[in-house]
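Morning - phosphoenolpyruvate inputs below, output right after.
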Amino acid sequence: MNNKIRKPLVAGNWKMNGNNELVRDFVKCLEKTSDVDVVICPPSCYLTAFEQAQFSLGAQNVSSFTSGAHTGELSTSMLKECKVSYVIVGHSERRENHGEANDIVASKVKAVIEAGLVPILCVGEPLEVRESGQVFDFVKAQLDAVASVCSNTYIELAVIAYEPIWAIGTGKTASPEQAQEVHAFIRKELAQLNASAAQSIRLLYGGSVNASNANELFAQNDIDGGLIGGASLKIEDFTAICQAAS
Ligand code: PEP
C-alpha cells in the first residue's frame, strides 16, 4: 500500500449488531495478518465469547468512573478482565445520542489511558459544519478538549479516528483528498503538542469504508487504517479491507 512507518490498524465497530454465530464465524474464519493490527469491537455482552481470537478486542464505550452507582456502565477494569485492549471513545453516536460532550469524552480518554488501554478517540464534523467551512475549527475543539485533560502524552498512547458524521452509515464516503486533508490537519495539530508522537500516532479514517474504496483511502499519506462500521459485519468485506491496509 505505501511505505509508511506506522503499522496499519483496522478496527471493526459492530455497534448493536451481531450474535453468537457471528462471533464464532469471525473466530473461525478471520485470517491472522501480521502486518496489520486488527481489532473487533463487538457489543460488550460478546466480549468474553472471543476466546483465542487471532485479533485484538475493543469495547465500544466505557465509563470514566472506576465503580459505583452507574447503572448500565462498564469500568476500564471490567473491560480488562474481558481481555479488551482498545476502547472506542467519543463515537459520534455516543456524542449525539447519549449526550457525550467534549469534556465527558476527554475524561473517558483519560480513564482509558490510565488503565493501560488504548483509546480510539473519534472526532469528526456534522454536515452543516463541513458546509460552512468550519471543519478544522470543529475538529480542533474536539482535540483540544482531550489535550487539556490528558496532557500531551496522550498522543503517544492513543489512536485517533477521523469520522465525518455525514459519512457514517450513509454510504457517502469522504473522498481520499477530503479525508487526507483533515488527517494532515490532525497530525499537524498534534505535532504542536508532541512532535515525535505525532509522527507515530495512528490516524484512522471512518465513514462508509468498504472493500472497494479502502485501497484508495488507506493509500493517503496520513491515513493509517480505518474504523469500519457496516462492512465489519461481513467477513469477506472486512477481510478485504484489512488486506487493503496491509
Ligand atoms: C462507524 O460507525 O464508526 C462507521 C464508520 O460506520 P460505517 O462504516 O458503517 O459508516
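Note: Strands lie at 9-13, 37-41, 56-59, 84-89, 118-123, 159-162, 202-206, 225-228.

O.
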